[in-house]
Amino acid sequence: MKKISIIIFILLVIAAIFYWQEKIIKGVEIIINNNLNSGINQSKNDIGIKTSEEISTAVPFAMSEGEISRGNANKKQIIFTFDCGSGINSTDKILEVAQKHNVKLAFFATGKFAEKYPETIKKIAAEGHEIFNHTYSHPHLTQITDEEIKNELEKTDKIISDLTDKTTKPYFRPPYGDRNQHVLDIAEEAGFHSVYWTTDALDWMMDKTAEQVRQRIYSSLKNGEIILMHVGDDITGNILDEVFNKVESEGYRVVGLTEGLR
Ligand SMILES: [Zn+2]
Fold this sequence. Notes:
Helix content is 48%, strand content 13%. The chain contains nine helices and nine strands.
């Protein structure tokens, strides 16, 4: 009897070892894959395959306080945000669709974008949409000094407010989603609160089709969701009317950021 107990015990130990090994190997694979993926995105960006410089690697960063990543979950509404970093391909269509649906949207613009397309910035503001801060040169904020972080935000605020008579405070969106608690603290000191997203529509990715972008949005609809899209690609402007129709037919309101947080 004793012998059988010992044998069962040994078998259990062996099973446990196998189980944990499997888990560890899987964990390592996930880490390697994540690194590989962001590496691929990064190199695409560096050699400029994508017309948009917008590469959102969606760096995982467990944080609830100190950053907004979702709107008011008690209301049936979806927050649509558009990052402006390089091109303006979809801008006019986005504004047309917003007018047609009588909705106000949120834009996050870089200072460089505002310098290059001042009329676009003015138009977005004149049509009643919100423009927030996406830094000046779209750097990785975790890799620059505190002083540089503040400059990136303040310089952009000056450029945009000179064009629109409105500050970009109190919100900014970290380029590439690259931020840590220190970056958030420094930005906060400068008067800017980070806004992340619930769903990255991946409209900026070269290999994505309009259908894939639509499905990404449709499959994730929920109260208070913040959707990240871009003005620089060709997909967004072409699908937005249909996307808004679908969102509204499911009973959601399309809103900008300030309203979506209320
Ligand atoms: Zn960006």
